[in-house]
């Protein structure tokens, strides 16, 4: 374990130890650890010179870019709070978050600057990844502004439980909430998670997801803290992911199972040289035995699954390499708690711990768990049980060895004729049908049962779906009460800017005129 007490120490340490070693490569501007530290010095000094006080917020509205990490470490050195924004949001959504977080400065990519309200107060810095930035009224070119600033590290960092980051969780209902993350929380996650995967100065990490997601920002920070390098993506396509992975000899690769399947089924991708890859870490869903075997054959690497939330800095449980074996029932689990983290299953109504094997709400506590939602005391209180147990909102159970098996989101639970139905289980069965591209299962009103499952499906290109045949298909795989009683075929499922399916939009037409939207 290191003795770092501030996030600024990360880049100071690596710049001192290996100043000429690459820190960021791939798409965008490449920098060494020494250059990253020096540029973050100047940016930190500029923020202080512009009047930002300790605890003030500074926003980032851009795609993945080296400028993000310059701002990240500048914020650490200046004692301010970074607010990474989802660049896929609408102007209204951006304006709402900026109004909630009240940042005193913003760094944005030029083609996204129009999303920022004209009345934004404080320095507005703009950059481009495609040449000279288009600088609009009220904005300053980042490089020109930076060149005018002092170059000395202001050493105004915060430590311990000091707030460092506000990440807005998308959610599927209402406005997003600002998840607060402390300096101590980040430092703990860097140590705890990095130790699980042999991250070192020679590591090359491929993280093809946006930095405003905790998985991408968190893993990248772990890689940089070890003195390694990250392979950066501005835009992600299967082709450039393959090219950057092979071209930069990646050692650690972050994927989701659907992307893994693309790599092992595409002849060109499957034949590539992956001899450098040591770890493939995935999340978002369990892995099938077929994909696991294929991934091991193609990548020749250790596999691990990670489960977590923004509220837990993305670190809660890990399904390790030893559990990735043919015939293991644990492949359907999310693994066991990371050392230093506690995970339990509570009754969502009473807050009492559930017996082994009984489904309830997954709760957790530990050094990485958020202390509160930004300016949301009531929602903060509702998200914790006594004793500091954070309510994840995920339904699941734990076996006798502590492995956690997720079933669904608590709020997506259906109650039909007194029986609990978990939509994810029904969706998994439907996804096995060869004509189905995507599916969402919701509850719709039933006079007899209160509500029954309704499947909203998207067909694969060139395929057609017969509702009765699909219901019969699921009845071969599930208890009949779990199967959909109706099927609707649409062109695309509604999603929010983070890609989450908006089930409330699918439910709304069915429950119009009803007092409540569940049975």
Please characterize this protein's 3D structure:
This protein is α/β, with parallel strands linked by helices and about 525 residues long. The chain folds into 3 domains: about 180 residues, Rossmann fold; about 170 residues, ANL, N-terminal domain (Rossmann fold, 3-Layer(aba) Sandwich); about 100 residues, ANL, C-terminal domain (GMP Synthetase, Chain A, domain 3, 2-Layer Sandwich). About 30% of the residues lie in helices and about 25% in strands. The chain has 15 helices and 26 strands. Strand 1 and strand 2 form a beta hairpin. Helix 1 runs antiparallel to helix 2, helix 6 packs across helix 7 and helix 9 crosses helix 11. The longest helix is centred in the N-terminal third of the chain and has 17 residues. It is globular. It starts with 7 loop residues before the first helix and ends in an 8-residue tail after the last helix.
The number of helical runs is 15
Side-by-side strand order of the widest sheet: 2-1-11-10-12-13-14-15-16
Mind telling me the CATH class of the largest domain? Alpha Beta
Rg is 24 Å
CATH topology heading of the largest domain: Rossmann fold
Helix content: 25-40%
Total discrete domains? 3
**What is the 3D form?**
globular
Tell me the distance between the termini.
51 Å
Strand content: 15-25%
Count of beta strands? 26
Family: Belongs to the ATP-dependent AMP-binding enzyme family.
GO molecular function: acid-thiol ligase activity
Domain AMP-dependent synthetase/ligase: 12-374
Domain AMP-binding enzyme C-terminal: 425-500
